[in-house]
Design a protein that fits this description.
The protein is an alpha/beta fold. It has 13 helices and eleven strands. It has a six-stranded mixed β-sheet with strand order 7-6-8-9-10-11, with helices on both faces. Strands 2-1-3-4-5 form a five-stranded parallel β-sheet, with helices on both faces.
Length: 345
């Protein structure tokens, strides 16, 4: 064979699968008999002169495993853009695996990437469990988590509690007292607990008349749309979606039923998606810089690989973006008050 020998060539000659050859190269378990066949195939093909054999000598693959919760997401696209801005100039390539919002699948993906011999793993996590901690502690491959936080592992995330407080404080100023928080399961610590609790804390603080109901949805537009009837039945003055996708699903439902936003019901989101600026009315939201998060996460992982302290602050900024989807109830009251007073004199 020529110099461009592939792992497939070795597998075919040895009569084994490509994954078996990969496990051999990464010192994973295979039977003694298969070890012999793979070793002989490598010697016959000259495979040790190619990329994978080079990795055995340098102990570097220049590959980074990236585990994502889903692919059909605006945030994931921006996160990947930021990651590539750092990894590509450094000579690294990414291997993408998707967990489909399943913690069990996320763990399986991490294990698979370890077996493939990546230099490091970046996980946009749906939740850091005890199994995640044990897995991170049992491997020499650096694992960095984004989107969730735990003191036991390297991670970088948005301050979801503070983001929730920004929305809660703003709606207080607008005079709202009856809100529905449309959010996801509490299995997601960041969005399902911290973001929601931050909103509730700021919205209800020292206001016994303020009320927040909760309706659980998924992350996607359609699941929010399908729960919108239940939300509207609670008669809120404002609906707070845990993500812009949720808020956009609610907006669609309201428009189809001629419920005017913000005249009859106000709507707020989280994320700062571009589409929120072009829908009508434009969506008030808290914007997160996911591309910056991707850049910071990629650099953090490179620092871990180089055994050096991360450079710069790891806090992620959040920005409140006021648009057109929230009604100022206090202003309405102030405008009506002189008229009511005049009628009494």
């Amino acid at each position: 064979m020529g110099t461009k020998v592939t792992i497939k060539d070795v597998a075919e000659l040895a009569g084994v699968s490509k994954s078996t050859v990969s496990r051999y190269l990464n010192r994973g378990y295979i039977s003694v008999e298969k070890q012999k066949r793979v070793r002989e195939a490598i010697e016959k093909t000259g495979f040790k002169s190619n990329f994978f054999a080079k990795r055995l000598k340098t102990k570097q693959s220049k590959l980074i495993g990236i585990v994502l919760p889903r692919m059909d997401s605006v945030t994931v696209g921006k996160l990947l853009m930021g990651i590539s801005r750092i990894f590509e100039p450094a000579g690294y390539q990414g291997i993408l695996l998707v967990s489909h919002l399943s913690p069990a699948k996320e763990l399986e993906n991490i294990r698979n990437l370890q077996q493939q011999g990546v230099d490091g793993i970046l996980v946009d996590s749906v939740g850091i469990t005890e199994e995640h901690l044990e897995l991170s502690a049992s491997t020499s491959v650096p694992i960095l988590y984004t989107g969730q936080r735990h003191e036991g592992v390297p991670c970088i995330k948005i301050d979801d509690h503070q983001a929730g407080r920004l929305v809660g404080a703003y709606l207080r100023q607008m005079g709202h007292t009856r809100a529905v928080f449309a959010g996801v399961t509490e299995a997601d610590q960041a969005v399902g607990i911290e973001r929601k609790q931050g909103f509730i804390d700021a919205f209800t603080e020292n206001r016994p008349e303020a009320r927040v109901d909760f309706v659980e949805t998924g992350f996607d537009f359609l699941s929010a749309y399908n729960r919108a009837a239940d939300i509207v039945q609670l008669e809120p003055s404002v609906i707070v979606g845990a993500t812009d996708n949720i808020s956009l699903g609610v907006l669609r439902y309201l428009h189809e039923r001629s419920i005017r936003v913000p005249e009859q019901i106000s709507v707020v989101g989280f994320g700062g998606y571009d589409v929120g600026a072009v829908v009508y009315p434009a969506l008030t939201t808290v914007a997160f810089d996911y591309e910056l998060m991707g850049m910071k996460a990629a650099q953090y992982l490179l620092d871990l690989l180089a055994d050096r302290e991360p450079e710069g602050p790891m806090e992620m900024p959040v920005f409140f973006v006021e648009r057109e989807s929230v009604r100022n109830l206090k202003k309405d009251f102030e405008q009506q008050e002189p008229t009511a007073y005049a009628s009494m004199t």
